[in-house]
């Protein structure tokens, strides 16, 4: 502590408490785990910071100012900590500041009270140590004495039932009195230094004397408790009583009250003598160790102060006595009758709230250490406040949006943005306006340019023509192939006459030719549509090329200028109106300038409003009252008041937004008046007529290109559908081509086999025929049964050229009734299979192996009955959906073909209509042919038919059923009488062809072993290819 000056009295400070180490970490970790349900390890750093903060605050520092900051920080964190962990219990050991007694409590309130006492003691030490001869020192001393009084007052107001003496209400009240008395004394010193009036100084001194005098009575109770020395307080009380009388005497003397002044000087001298005597007594017994809170030279300094004051008072009293005796001769009133000196209260406590509200202290406290821990109640209150903020923002945004919509609607209703260009052009003396393309025309140009760059219309037309020619060539090739195949078949029929058994192509190719015809029809219809599309394209090709070229701007420019000369000549006939027109243009220009200025102002207002809204949203976003809600957590019913106060922060933004709306309304009103005046003045002039004419021509040009663009899009749409159509038609044509090739290939293979077979029959049938065997003669007598076959006969038998199932037969006689052999319905679909040839070797269980024929040299070909595909209709006309091709109708699909015959022929079937009286021509036989009048030759043997099947191409006959056929089983003897009808019905239910074909086949000229030879009237039916 610095030594006090000669004219300054010594100041006393409050002694400090002492403490020991405290463990904050364990209780806080437990509270976090139980109350918040979080992992305490996440807050290990916060716990360590709090522990270090307490150690720094209570262990002291090198200077009182540093100790003050550390205590401020620790107490601030304690306040926040108590709001989160009010139920926490920690052992806080503190020693009494006066008795040094150790007292331990577990309440955070005890820790807070002790820390506040420490802060008050530190502040008092700072105030007492100031050099009061310096004005700044006086100010600091006065401030810290007042803050000390405020800290002590807070302890008395908020902490009851103090466990220690230094925190008791009586001691705290006594300490507050001493601190305020010293603060008043400091202010007295300040006033004397600043040469204030004697009356004011007397009032302050009287207040100081009053405070010390009241303390002198209380200090008697604490004499034995070692708090303060009673003589120090008594000396101060007497000293300031003398000082107050002295300065009031000076004031009375100056006011001409010399008698009162002399009496006051006398009273002051008496009090000064008593103060000097007590100061001498205090100095004689003053020991620094006994009064550590006083300066070391407090005793001598106080004695010197009172001694000097006594000398001053004595001199002044003697001088006043002489002057009154010689000059004034004033009557001296009794001291008791003198007016009381008024007291001026100049020192009041500074509350702890004011101390902690200062930015310096808040900066020292820093951020809440446990800011991440927010109680649930605080979260709920913060949510309510957030909703209040959101309502405020929504209201302002809605107002701003309404203002924007109102302005936009007003401008659109007046047509200012579009019409301003017109009037500006009129004011400039022309109607040129903008030379650029209209927006829609520019968009059309860009769209068409992109489509043409990707795939031009010309390339699509070329591709369409190529695909159409390709399809046409394919269809023509198919037609040629079918015609060639038919010609070859008929040529072979002419060549081999009755030996040629291949079915004509006409019935088999009916479906193929129907598909071919429908494809040709669809192709022709599509070609007509293509011509219409091409004609449409040719009609707009020039317009589209002009639209895509840079000259399109020249077209628009010319459209607005071409017809201008004539109209200008008509308007300029009145030469005397030129001056009037010039004046009108000048006025229009002025209106236009003012309107543009108002529009610019509206844009600025809108921009400013948007910026204010952005600032408001940012402010609302950053605003967080969780800390305030946490601080007021224990105060119920303050949320509404707190929220209202916090929302006032946004009031300036709301006012700025309201101002923008107001200015916008004013500007809009001015703009409406200007626009109305401009239209009234310029809407009927010559310039307006020019503009209207220009706009009309411009719209005509736009409509011109609009029509071209519409036709262009329709052309592209038609071409796209055409491409799709030709793609599908190409696929169908390819399928038809493959089916036709397959059909022709099968027919060619069959034709080659039948031609080979017919050649052999032609060679063999003539030498083996019997001359006397006439068609009308009787059959010869059957020969005797053959002898057992020898090796030589077997060899000759194997060399005989026969079919697969029987002997060769002579040529059949002409049919009795002429009938078209190939007038049957179409053959069955490809799913119907033809009979397979018999196995090359029969099973060994039959005893007729020597009579079996050798396997054929080549497998007989299977005659195709119909192309292996389902006939399909051509794709629909691609242009049917286009309005411009409404006259073109899609080709009708081909007629449905008749249902095919059954795929499997029954074992007892009627004869085919192509041969009503005779069976299929048989191979050569040693027996003469039967007469044509026998009706039993018109039937097919049931079992052979089930094995070999009827000839392909036959279907249900339109004729009545024949008489019951004679069945020739593979294991039956020839000549066996026909079975009764019941047995015939059983023969119809014989096993499938796969099982029947396993039966051995015999030559027709040789019976089975042990059986007589068959009669010559009976023959077996052979299928195609046998």
Protein architecture, described:
- This protein has 1026 residues and is mostly helical.
- Helix content is 59%, strand content 1%.
- The protein is built from 29 helices and three strands.
- The protein has helices at residues 25-36, 44-58, 64-84, 108-128, 135-158, 169-193, 198-218, 230-254, 258-285, 298-328, 352-357, 359-365, 376-414, 416-427, 439-454, 457-496, 505-508, 510-548, 552-561, 564-571, 578-622, 626-631, 639-647, 651-682, 686-765, 791-799, 942-948, 981-988, 993-996, and strands at residues 18-19, 92-95, 102-105.
- The protein has a three-stranded antiparallel sheet with strand order 1-2-3, covered by helices on one side.
- Helix 6 (169-193) packs antiparallel against helix 7, helix 8 packs antiparallel against helix 9 (258-285) and helix 15 packs parallel to helix 25 (686-765).
- The radius of gyration is 66 Å and the shape is elongated.
- The model is unreliable at 1-7, 431-435, 562-576, 768-781, 786-871 and 881-1026 (pLDDT under 50).
Biggest sheet, in brief? 3 strands, antiparallel
Q: Which strand-content bin applies to the residues?
A: under 5%
Number of helices: 29
Distance between the termini: 143 Å
Overall morphology: elongated
Oligomer: single chain
Rounded mean pLDDT score: 74
Helix content: 55-70%
How many E strands? 3
Low-confidence parts:
1-7, 431-435, 562-576, 768-781, 786-871, 881-1026
**Class by alpha and beta content:** mainly alpha
Radius of gyration: 66 Å
In the sheet with the most strands, the strands line up as: 1-2-3
């Amino acid at each position: 502590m610095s030594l006090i000056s000669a004219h300054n009295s010594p100041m006393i400070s409050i002694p400090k408490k002492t403490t020991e180490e405290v463990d904050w970490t364990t209780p806080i970790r437990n509270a976090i785990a139980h109350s918040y349900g979080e992992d305490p390890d996440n807050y290990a750093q916060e716990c360590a910071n709090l522990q270090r903060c307490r150690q720094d605050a209570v262990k002291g520092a090198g200077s009182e100012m540093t100790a003050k900051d550390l205590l401020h920080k620790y107490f601030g964190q304690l306040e926040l900590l108590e709001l989160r962990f009010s139920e926490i219990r920690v052992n806080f050991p503190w020693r009494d500041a006066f008795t040094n007694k150790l007292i331990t409590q577990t309440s955070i309130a005890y820790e807070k009270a002790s820390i506040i006492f420490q802060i008050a003691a530190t502040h008092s030490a700072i105030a007492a140590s100031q050099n009061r001869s310096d004005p700044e020192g006086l100010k600091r001393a006065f401030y810290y004495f007042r803050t000390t009084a405020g800290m002590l007052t807070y302890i008395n107001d908020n902490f009851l039932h103090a466990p220690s003496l230094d925190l008791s209400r009586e001691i705290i009240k006594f300490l507050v009195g001493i601190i305020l008395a010293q603060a008043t004394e400091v202010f007295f010193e300040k006033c004397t230094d600043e040469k204030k009036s004697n009356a004011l100084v007397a009032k302050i001194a009287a207040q100081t004397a009053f405070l010390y005098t009241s303390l002198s009575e209380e200090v008697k109770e604490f004499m034995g408790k070692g708090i303060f020395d009673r003589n120090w307080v008594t000396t101060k009380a007497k000293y300031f009583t003398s000082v107050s009388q002295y300065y009031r005497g000076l004031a009375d003397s100056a006011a001409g009250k010399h008698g009162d002044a002399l009496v006051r000087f006398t009273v002051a001298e008496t009090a000064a003598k008593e103060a000097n005597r007590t100061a001498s007594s205090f100095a004689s017994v003053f020991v620094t160790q006994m009064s550590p809170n006083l300066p070391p030279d407090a005793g001598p300094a106080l004695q010197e102060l009172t001694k000097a004051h006594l000398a001053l008072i004595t001199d002044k009293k003697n001088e006043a006595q002489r002057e009154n005796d010689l000059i004034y001769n004033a009557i001296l009133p009794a001291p008791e009758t003198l007016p009381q000196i008024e007291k001026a209260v100049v020192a009041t406590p500074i509350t702890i709230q004011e101390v902690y509200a200062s930015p310096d202290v808040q900066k020292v406290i820093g951020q809440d250490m446990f800011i991440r821990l927010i109680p649930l109640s605080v979260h709920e209150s913060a949510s309510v406040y957030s909703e209040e903020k959101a309502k405020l923002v929504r209201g302002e945004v809605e107002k701003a949006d309404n203002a924007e919509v109102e302005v936009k609607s007003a401008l659109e209703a007046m047509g200012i943005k579009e019409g301003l260009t017109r009037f500006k052009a009129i004011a400039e003396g022309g109607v040129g306006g903008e030379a650029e393309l209209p927006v829609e025309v520019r968009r059309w140009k860009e769209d068409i340019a992109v489509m043409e760059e990707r795939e031009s219309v010309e390339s699509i037309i070329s591709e369409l023509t190529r695909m159409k020619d390709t399809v046409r060539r394919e269809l023509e090739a198919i037609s040629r192939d079918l015609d060639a195949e038919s010609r070859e078949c008929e040529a072979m029929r002419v060549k081999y006459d009755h030996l040629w058994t291949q079915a004509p192509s006409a019935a088999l190719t009916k479906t193929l030719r129907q598909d071919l015809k429908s494809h040709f029809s669809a192709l022709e219809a599509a070609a007509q549509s293509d011509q219409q599309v091409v004609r449409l394209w040719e009609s707009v090709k020039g317009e589209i090329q002009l639209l895509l070229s840079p000259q399109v701007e020249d077209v628009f420019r010319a459209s607005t200028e071409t017809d201008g000369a004539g109209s200008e000549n008509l308007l300029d006939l009145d030469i005397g109106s030129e001056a009037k027109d010039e004046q009108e243009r000048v006025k229009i220009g002025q209106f236009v300038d003012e309107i543009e200025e108002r529009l610019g102002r509206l844009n600025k207002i809108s921009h400013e409003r948007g910026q204010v809204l952005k600032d408001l949203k940012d402010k609302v976003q950053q605003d967080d009252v969780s800390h305030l809600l946490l601080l007021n957590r224990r105060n119920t019913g303050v949320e509404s008041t707190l929220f209202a106060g916090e929302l006032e922060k946004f009031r300036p933004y709301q006012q700025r937004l309201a101002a923008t709306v107001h200015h916008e309304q004013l500007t809009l009103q001015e703009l409406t008046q200007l626009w109305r005046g401009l239209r009234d003045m310029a809407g009927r002039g010559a310039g307006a007529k020019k503009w209207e004419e220009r706009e009309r021509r411009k719209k005509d040009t736009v409509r011109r290109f609009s029509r071209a663009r519409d036709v262009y899009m329709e052309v592209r749409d038609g071409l796209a559908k055409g491409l799709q159509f030709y793609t599908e038609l190409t696929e169908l044509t390819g399928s038809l081509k493959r089916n036709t090739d397959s059909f022709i290939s099968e027919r060619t293979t069959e034709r080659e086999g039948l031609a080979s077979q017919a050649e052999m029959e032609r060679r063999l049938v003539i030498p083996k025929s019997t001359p006397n065997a006439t068609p009308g003669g009787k059959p010869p007598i059957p020969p005797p049964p053959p002898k057992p076959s020898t090796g030589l006969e077997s060899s000759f038998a194997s060399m005989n050229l026969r079919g697969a199932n029987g002997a060769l037969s002579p040529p059949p006689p002409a049919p009795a009734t002429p009938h078209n052999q190939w007038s049957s319905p179409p053959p069955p679909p490809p799913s119907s299979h033809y009979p397979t040839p018999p196995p090359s070797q029969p099973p060994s269980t039959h005893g007729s192996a020597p009579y079996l024929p050798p396997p054929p040299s080549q497998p007989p070909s299977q005659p195709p009955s119909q192309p292996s595909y389902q006939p399909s209709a051509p794709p629909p006309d691609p242009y049917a959906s286009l309005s411009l091709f409404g006259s073109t109708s899609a080709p009708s699909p081909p007629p449905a073909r008749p249902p095919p015959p059954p795929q499997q022929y029954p074992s007892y079937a009627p004869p085919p209509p192509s041969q009503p009286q005779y069976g299929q021509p048989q191979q050569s036989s040693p027996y003469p042919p039967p007469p044509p009048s026998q009706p039993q030759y018109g039937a097919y043997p049931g079992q052979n038919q089930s094995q070999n099947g009827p000839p392909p191409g036959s279907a249900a006959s339109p004729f009545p059923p024949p008489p019951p056929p004679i069945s020739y089983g593979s294991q039956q003897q020839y000549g066996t009488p026909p079975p009764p009808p019941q047995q015939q019905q059983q023969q119809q239910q014989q096993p499938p062809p796969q099982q029947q074909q396993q039966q051995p086949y015999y030559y027709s000229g040789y019976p089975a072993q042990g059986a007589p030879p068959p009669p010559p009237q009976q023959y077996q039916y052979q299928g195609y290819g046998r």
